[in-house]
Structure formats: C-alpha cells, structure tokens
C-alpha cells in the first residue's frame, strides 16, 4: 500500500492534513464558546474570538501541532525522549506569548517548568494534574495530534505508540490517549487511501474499551455536532468532529468545506472541533480541497502562512522517504 515514496495524490493528502487542521481552527476561531447555530447560518473566517484573532489566523490547536510538526520534519523519531523534550520546549516558548492556551495545557506546562522543561517533567506534571483533578480528559491532546500521523505513515505500530506518547506529555487520561490513537490511524488511512473511516483504528484500542468507542462513533453518526455539548472533553470533541464529517457526506466535492462549517455550527469549542475534523477531512481530500479564499488568508504562530504549513507537512513525509 505504501513504500515510503508517496504518490502525488498521497502527497497532496499529506499536506492536506496540516492545512485542513489549520483551516478548521481558523474558521472556528471567531465562534469559540458561542452557541450552536442553525444549518443555514453563514460561517466564515471572520477572526475575533478569545484571541482576539485576525481573520484567517489559527489558534493554539494548530500552533501546538506545528511544534510537533517541526520536530517531525527533521526526520526524528517522536518516541525518542530527546525529541519529545524538543516538542515540550517549543510549546513552552510558544505559550509565553500565546493569545490562548488551554487550561489543562497551561497548568501542565507551568508545573513542569519548575522541574526543568522537558518530556519527563511534563509527563510527571500531567499525571499529577490527573491525580489532583480526578480526570484529565480535555481535548487539548487530540486537537494537535494530526502531525503525528504524518510521521508514521509507513509504521502503523509506531503510530499507535507515538500518538499516545505525544498526547501524554500533557494529557494523562487514557480516554485522551485512545482518541489520539483512533484519530491518527484514521488520518493515516485517509492519506494512504483517500478514504474516511473513523473505525479503522478500533482494533488498536484496548479490548475492554473498544466496544465503548465503537458505540460512541455510532452515536455521532446519528447525532448532530451540537448534540455534543461538552466538547471541551476529548470524547465529545471527537464525537462532534466525527458527527460533522459523517453527516455532511452528501456534500460530495465540497465535503471538506461543508464538514468544517458543520463542526463550527456545533458551537462551544468550535475551533478545536473543526481543527480535529479538518485533520481527517484534509487527509482524505487533500490540500486541493481547501478553498482558495481560506488558503490566501491562513496564517499564525510562528509567523507562518499556508505555504509554510504545506512545506512543513512536505518535509515530514520527505524526511522519511529513504
Ligand atoms: Mg484553539
């Protein structure tokens, strides 16, 4: 199916993963924490939101994903602690001037700073956060997981491990780990085949949680994104994103755009749900499905535009094509 050298279509889809993520994020930014909207409510890259953000500007979801992507673009193995240290350091640097940092992520990053900025202290802080709060299933690891899939297109087993390990730098909860594994495997499958299948990774989830996740996907398919009102929780965020994708299949060639608009109309954590949906839609349809008017204004930390993001995605897959 894939021998490290991607076809032109697969390469377009690999680039689509990051551009789809950023497009969903920037589209949802202006509606964050707003209410659900009706089906005919116009959605555009209006900017604003809690940043406030400029029209076309992405938020923390894409910024944190870029930090992972930058390290992956060096050809690094993300299972190596030295590389995870680099990711955590980059997140720290970003968070110092970021317009928005998720509550759980900020708490973990600042706690880890006291013990020396790196993967070990971040994991420790994430576990302590989980113990203290009794849960740590925010959507903050799922929202940034897409580039991990690009780093393991030729290694499904490695991807299962890396999705969980990168997630656990800030989110200890197994629910968050499961969600990252499921979504990354769906993204990988999308890039390689052009197909959308959120169930492709169910066999890689622990057997005692597999049925639960399967039911959650079923529920998403017969619901609307707005039904997942607690979408700051990783489970509802994934269900909202999957619902947005699964209920807009009739949009045909406009599926990427329609799916992202639907995700935003779900309300609440709009940018994150749309960023999650965008990673998978971009994987299946490629960067060529991202509307030109969005591509033209997409930008954000660290002073990057759509072309920069495309180059980053390209370097992740190129660095492994040998
Ligand atoms: Mg955000």
UniProtKB/TrEMBL annotation:
The keyword Magnesium applies. InterPro entries: ADP-ribosylglycohydrolase, Ribosyl_crysJ1, Ribosyl_crysJ1_sf. Mg(2+) binds at residues 59-61, 269, 271-272. It comes from Mycolicibacterium brumae. Its cofactor is Mg(2+). It holds the Pfam family ADP_ribosyl_GH. Keywords: Hydrolase, Magnesium, Metal-binding. Binds 2 magnesium ions per subunit. Coiled coil: none annotated. Belongs to the ADP-ribosylglycohydrolase family. GO terms for molecular function: hydrolase activity; metal ion binding. This is ADP-ribosylglycohydrolase family protein.
């Amino acid at each position: 199916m894939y021998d490290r050298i991607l076809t032109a279509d697969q390469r377009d889809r690999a680039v689509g993963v990051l551009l789809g993520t950023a497009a969903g994020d920037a589209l949802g930014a202006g509606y964050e924490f707003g209410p659900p909207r009706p089906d005919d409510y116009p959605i555009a890259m209006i900017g604003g939101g809690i940043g406030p953000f400029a029209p076309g500007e992405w938020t923390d979801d894409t910024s944190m994903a870029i930090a992972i992507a930058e390290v992956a673009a060096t050809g690094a193995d993300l299972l190596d602690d030295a590389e995870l240290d680099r990711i955590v350091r980059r997140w720290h640097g970003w968070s110092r001037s970021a317009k928005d940092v998720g509550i759980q992520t900020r708490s973990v990053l600042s706690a880890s700073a006291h013990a020396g900025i790196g993967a070990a202290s971040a994991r420790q802080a994430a576990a302590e956060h989980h113990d203290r709060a009794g849960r740590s299933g925010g959507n903050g690891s799922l929202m940034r997981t897409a580039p991990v899939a690009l780093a393991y297109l030729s290694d499904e087993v490695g991807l299962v491990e890396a999705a969980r390990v990168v997630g656990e730098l800030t989110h200890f909860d197994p629910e968050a780990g499961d969600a990252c594994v499921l979504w990354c495997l769906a993204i990988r499958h999308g890039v390689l085949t052009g197909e959308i299948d959120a169930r492709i990774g169910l066999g890689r989830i622990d057997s005692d949680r597999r049925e639960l996740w399967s039911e959650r996907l079923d529920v998403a398919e017969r619901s609307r994104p707005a039904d997942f009102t607690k979408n700051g929780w990783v489970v509802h965020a994934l269900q909202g994103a999957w619902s947005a994708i699964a209920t807009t299949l009739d949009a045909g060639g406009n599926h990427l755009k329609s799916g992202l608009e639907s995700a935003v109309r779900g309300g609440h954590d709009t940018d994150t749900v749309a960023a999650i949906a965008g990673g998978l839609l971009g994987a299946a349809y490629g960067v060529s499905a991202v509307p030109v008017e969005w591509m033209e204004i997409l930008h954000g930390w660290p002073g990057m535009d759509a072309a920069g993001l495309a180059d980053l995605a390209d370097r992740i897959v190129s660095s492994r094509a040998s």
